[in-house]
UniProtKB/TrEMBL annotation:
InterPro entries: DBL_dom_sf, DH_dom, FGD1-4_PH2, FYVE_RhoGEF_PH, PH-like_dom_sf, PH_domain, Znf_FYVE, Znf_FYVE-rel
Gene Ontology annotations for the cellular component aspect, listed alphabetically: cytoplasm; cytoskeleton
Stretch list, region Disordered: 342-381
Keywords: Cytoplasm, Cytoskeleton, Guanine-nucleotide releasing factor, Metal-binding, Phosphoprotein, Repeat, Zinc, Zinc-finger
Protein name in UniProt: FGD3 protein
Length: 577
């Protein structure tokens, strides 16, 4: 029987082994999938849309967390048996996971679209999936790993705390770590549940031989099982199979196969307008019927309990569908009125995912001809998420609106400013357009709103709210340098913010620093400006130019620490030029 110290060591050892396996999965995503797709010419916009900030996550775990865990558990455990202090270092990086989880649904959509519409993308992914390192798992399965990792930390920490003595010096750090990680785990668990539903739908889709296109985030499998169909001619029982979804019932005929069992869809019945009821037939027990708009089926369960269960779950699904439909109609009535006033030409430019080649040709994903009018499917894609915050819309808590100035699709939170127009009515505009609108004489409310928004956007960049800040010249692509206000806020010590001139009205650009390398330009990189340094990560390089060597060295020192995740020391001794 293990002693308590031995149990704690076993938990620590499990954490180390799972972390090693996790870093291998991150390497597969960042250094194999991401790199190979980039080499195949897939556009950077599509790759970023799929893999989000996976490079930063991989860098943190591979270069910082895993080495620290390995040193502590394999070399120092006998004299310093604790985990809480190391896991607390996860806290500043939870925002990176939040960004990855928030982007997860969109990433899945992009992968599915690319697999269907881009031959180069599909070929690269399938070739990698055949390799032993993939373990016969799909890209989507591996993309779920970062989402699952945070809940795994939570479970291990809970187990660790149960066995940790109350007087242990590690208890305070471990409890603080658990508190921070549990909050992030809630978001990951929601994404995991969605992914599990999608995997279940994919399994059913394959069992149906691809006859019905059911793999859709809106679909949910409620119940499935064998059932007997009573023949209307002679009353004989025939073996059938039912799939009950939240929006339909699939009535299927089993098709026996050597490996596994597949089904052929005989009838598709919409939940809308469906009726289910118990029936009494002489000499036939456990019977009930379901009646749709086109057909009625008399069915027989194996037991009375099974019959009641089918009737109850079908009836509950019908009622829930009715409630959802009524709620949607109520919200959609006012919603559609606003849609009518938006001309097609006012929709913003199409996304990079929609510029993929169709069925007519191969080639890498690339940009589309900007002179072509966006197709309806492209415009519909853009209406699914807010232009400003990128959060997905729904008909209840996240309704869509339109900027009356530029036509962009935005949410209520990002369109709260309503300047008075010529007709003296308040109109919704996005924050970017609001800042560019000319002030109306005598309209005090608009002026105050405008001031409030400007103050809101600049507060995070103010020198007094930052660890360090200054003006720098900035270059990302091309040959043009831009003057930027660059700052690291006290509230986000691992994020660099860039802000252009106050006239451009754009929001500050955040750059999560973990995973970047800070260095001077290489011998082959020549610039007209002086005191240049650069940030490099994976396929991205950002150049900065300071006004003197002292400022250049100061920024390089600060950024190097932040890139390593050193938050406590970053603020020490920092001044503002």
């Amino acid at each position: 029987q293990c002693t308590e110290p031995q149990k704690l060591f076993n938990i620590a050892n499990e954490l180390l082994h799972t972390e090693e396996a996790y870093v291998k999965r991150l390497h597969l995503l960042d250094q194999v999938f991401c790199t190979k797709l980039s080499e195949a010419g897939i556009s950077s916009e599509v790759i970023t849309g799929i893999f989000s900030n996976i490079s930063s996550i991989y860098c943190f775990h591979g270069q910082f967390l895993l080495p620290e865990l390995k040193t502590r558990i394999t070399q120092e455990w006998s004299v310093n048996p604790r985990l809480g202090d190391i896991l607390q270092k996860l806290a500043p990086f939870l925002k990176m996971y939040g960004e990855y989880v928030k982007n997860f649904d969109r990433a899945m959509d992009i992968v599915n679209t690319c697999m269907q519409r881009s031959s180069p993308f599909k070929d690269v992914v399938q070739n990698i999936q055949k390799q032993e390192v993939c373990g016969n798992l799909t890209l989507q399965h591996h993309m779920l790993e970062p989402v699952q990792r945070i809940p795994r930390y939570e479970l291990l920490l809970k187990d660790y705390l149960k066995k940790l003595p109350e007087e242990s010096p590690d208890r305070k750090d471990a409890e603080k770590s658990l508190e921070l990680i549990s909050t992030a785990a809630n978001h990951s668990n929601a994404a995991i549940r969605k992914m599990e539903k999608m995997h279940k739908l994919l399994e059913v889709y394959e069992r149906l031989g691809g006859e019905e296109d059911i793999v859709n985030p809106a679909n949910e499998l409620i119940k499935e099982g064998h059932i007997q169909k009573l023949s209307a001619k002679n009353g004989t029982a025939q073996d059938r199979y039912l799939f009950l979804f939240n929006s339909m019932v699939l009535y299927c005929v089993p098709k026996l196969r050597l490996i596994g069992q597949k089904f052929s869809v005989r009838e598709k019945m919409d939940i809308a307008g469906l009726q289910v009821q118990e029936i009494a037939k002489q000499n036939v027990a456990h019977t009930f019927s379901i009646t749709g708009k086109k057909r009625s089926l008399e069915l027989q369960a194996r037991t009375e309990e099974e019959k009641r269960e089918w009737i109850q779950v079908i009836q509950a699904t019908i009622e829930k569908h009715k409630q959802n439909s009524e709620t949607f109609r109520a919200f959609n009535s006012s919603f559609s009125q606003e849609e009518e006033h938006l001309p097609d030409s006012s929709i913003a430019s199409t996304s990079s995912v929609e510029s993929m080649p169709g069925a007519d040709g191969g080639g890498a994903l690339g940009g589309s001809d900007s002179s072509r009018k966006p197709s309806k499917s492209k415009r519909d894609k853009e209406k699914q998420a807010c232009k400003s915050c990128s959060e997905s819309f729904n008909s209840i808590t996240k309704r869509r609106h339109h900027c009356k100035q530029c036509g962009a699709v935005i949410c209520a939170k990002c369109s709260e400013f309503k300047p008075l127009a010529d007709n003296s009515r308040h109109n919704r505009v996005c924050k970017e357009c609001f800042l560019q609108l000319p002030a109306s004489p005598g309209v005090e409310a608009v002026g105050e709103q405008k001031k409030r928004l400007a103050a809101e956007k600049q507060s995070i960049l103010a020198a007094e709210n930052s660890l360090f800040s200054s003006y720098l010249q900035f270059l990302e692509k091309g040959k043009t340098w831009y003057k930027m206000w660059v700052t690291i806020p006290k509230t986000e010590p691992l994020v660099l913010y860039l802000q252009g001139s106050s006239q451009d009205g754009r929001s500050p650009r955040p750059i999560p620093l973990p995973g970047y390398e800070v260095s001077l330009p290489g011998s082959g990189e020549k610039f007209e400006v002086k005191h240049v340094f650069k940030l490099c990560q994976s396929h991205q390089t950002l150049y900065f130019s300071a006004e003197d060597e002292e400022l250049q060295m100061k920024w390089m020192e600060i950024l190097t620490k932040a890139a390593k995740g050193e938050t406590e020391d970053t603020a020490e001794g920092l001044g503002h030029p």
